[in-house]
Write a structure and sequence with these properties.
The chain is of the alpha/beta class. Helix content is about 25%, strand content about 25%. It has a domain of about 140 residues: Vaccinia Virus protein VP39 (Rossmann fold, 3-Layer(aba) Sandwich), CATH 3.40.50.150. The protein has a 7-stranded mixed sheet. Strand 4, helix 2 and strand 5 form a beta-alpha-beta unit.
């Protein structure tokens, strides 16, 4: 996942739920990485890994992803792998990721989301109470996560052999060029509204398609 991010020099990246820091060595050294996790034990392992690899471009903090201590618009990119379906309140976490990510920045989620196939989705819904006891849920749909937010899908791809996990790259459409587009919103004629991001107009229909 990290190798496909096309990280730019001096890019400010936040990794939410950094865990033991497995992904840290994969980031290029020309960017700045800030990793947060609520588990002190996992952070200790991540700090050891950062020290072993002499990663001076990495900072690690114990922090609640649903109540981050960073200022608004602190990061160019926010990465959250296996987080959204594992936290008690995904809305708070997504809201905080949007807040600390700059307008027009990227929010990237790697997660299992409910399947578009109705039969598989029904099975996932039945399994969800069981998987919740293991620490995650299987019945959360991507569109449910995006509804009511200014996030627009720029790229979505399935990344594991069974295609059960999705890598979703979103553009943060908050306050871009003086306009904010909320997912699911329509204009007075019932047509899709638009976000203006870095000079590009994205419709709701187009926002669900992969770029390139």
């Amino acid at each position: 996942m990290i190798r496909n991010l096309d990280v730019q020099p001096d890019e400010e990246i936040l990794e939410v739920g950094v865990g033991t820091g497995l992904a840290l060595p994969m980031y290029p050294r020309h960017c700045r990485i800030v990793g947060i996790d609520f588990s002190e034990g996992m952070l200790e392992q991540a700090k050891q890994k950062a020290a072993e690899h002499k990663m001076g471009h990495v900072e690690l903090h114990r922090m609640d992803a649903g109540a981050m201590e960073f200022k608004d618009d602190s990061f160019d990119t926010v990465v959250a792998a296996y987080v959204v379906t594992a936290v008690p309140d995904y809305r708070k976490v997504v809201s905080e990721m949007i807040r600390v990510c700059r307008p027009g920045g990227r929010i990237i989620m790697l997660n299992h989301f409910a399947n578009d196939n109705k039969i598989i989705a029904a099975i996932e819904k039945v399994l969800s109470p069981i998987t919740k006891n293991l620490g995650w849920r299987t019945d959360l749909a991507l569109q449910t996560v995006l509804d009511g937010t200014p996030l627009h899908v720029a790229r979505k791809q399935h990344v594991n052999p069974m295609r059960l996990w999705a890598l979703v790259e979103c553009v943060n459409g908050k306050n871009v060029n003086g306009k904010t587009h909320i997912n699911g919103a329509k204009n007075g004629n019932g047509a899709a509204t638009y976000a203006h991001i870095n000079g590009t107009r994205l419709s709701e229909q187009a926002s669900g398609q992969a770029l390139g």
